[in-house]
Amino acid sequence: MKWSEISIHTTNEAVEPISNILYEAGASGIVIEDSFELTKEREDRFGEIYQLDPNDFPDEGVIIKAYLPVNSFLGETVEEIKQAINNLILFNIDIGINKVTISEVHEEEWATAWKKYYHPVKISSKFTIVPTWEEYEPVQSDELIIELDPGMAFGTGTHPTTVMSIQALERTVKKGDLVIDVGTGSGVLSIASALLEAGKITALDLDEVAVQSAKLNIKLNKVDQHITVKQNNLLDGINDQADIIVGNLLAEIILRFTDDAYRLLNSGGYFITSGIINQKRNEVENALLQSGFTIQETLLMEDWVTFIAKKLD
Which of 47, 111, 272, 300 has its Cβ near the most Cβ atoms within 10 Å? Predict the structure, then answer.
């Protein structure tokens, strides 16, 4: 089979929404080349090991590469992708240069080339994200391993918003807790909750592709007996009470369901919100307070913000 590589030169802020657009368009595998990775200072307290080649990264901004099958609908698909990316401006998302290029690649090239970007990464004191094709031996007896295949999932679980979400779950999940994961994507936050011994986890996503990806990753990590995955629009129609609700989404989307999250949480429950670019911090914080939450903790990483909010009554 022939494949077409679509390359989009954009900003860090636009990485997650554009990645979702690409997966919804049928992309098989995504590569993210972020110029910031070459210059940022890294903490080594979790034992990360990075070996980066400057030739793999742009001079500025971020390049997202995705792979689409070459068929009679390719032209229409590319135009739909371009239009969807342009529409992100309506949500005040900076799409930067927004240069889109197309090239043809052979299947064996794309099937292996993007894997060089992904290696085991210890993202917290407990969790390590391991690509399925990598051999990895835990270095601590209490280390928790999440296996992910970026070829079938929404990213590798190492984006700052995901890392902070998992760190927030570590701080809040207690054995037997009821968890709702809104916009589950790859299912990584549901998997993390299960490994932290949450009781029942409901993973929700509007995108059917995400639902299937989450189911595959959840089964891969052998926690499917604890997690129910459903296609659903945010918390619409959900009436089950929860101890923790987590959503790693765009700020604009989080603003739509803060009241619903407050309604569904048990007294003393936590609402973890991530995916918030720093410019949207005050807007989300105000919405959480207006819904009745108290901000317990604010996590910061690069230009991203995660809130741990608590329902007190």
Answer: 272
Do 177 and 243 contact (CB within 8 A), yes or no?
yes
Query: Whole-prediction pTM value?
Result: 0.70
CB distance 310 to 171 below 8 Å: no
Q: Read off the pLDDT of residues 3-49 as tens digits, 9 standing for 90 and up.
A: 788 999 998 888 889 988 888 888 866 788 775 443 444 444 444 43
Residue 305's DSSP bridge partners are 276, 300
Q: What are the pLDDT digits (tens) for 113-143?
A: 556 667 788 888 889 988 887 788 888 788 9
Give the domains, in start order, of the chain with CATH numbers.
2-117 (3.30.70.260), 121-310 (3.40.50.150)
